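Methods — Computational structure assignment.
A single polypeptide chain was analysed. Its primary sequence is given first, followed by the predicted tertiary structure written as structure tokens.
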Amino acid sequence: MLLLSLAKSPANRRTGACLEYRSNAPIQQCESLREIDLGDWDGTVIETHRGAAGFDDYFARPDRFNAASNHGEDFPHLISRGKAAILSISQRSEADDRILVVSHGVLLTR
């Protein structure tokens, strides 16, 4: 199967790098495929927040995650952003195009 296009989050992770190396497909970085904005938790060791409001929900039930508690992005916004990204990618493509979309974490859970 020939991959015609690759859309990936801006996160610098192994999956995207591996695909970039092994594919001749054009690569589109898509900001809307980025991981959930964790607000005050971003850039920190997540384990240091164990016991904080919303910690357990973030991992077990992200749809119940209270983003206001850490000034982050709520789940409905994340899903809306992800759906809009997929719709935009599909609208720029032909019906029979093969496109691989790469994202991370919570965006992929529901």
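Note: Strands lie at 5-8, 27-29, 99-102.
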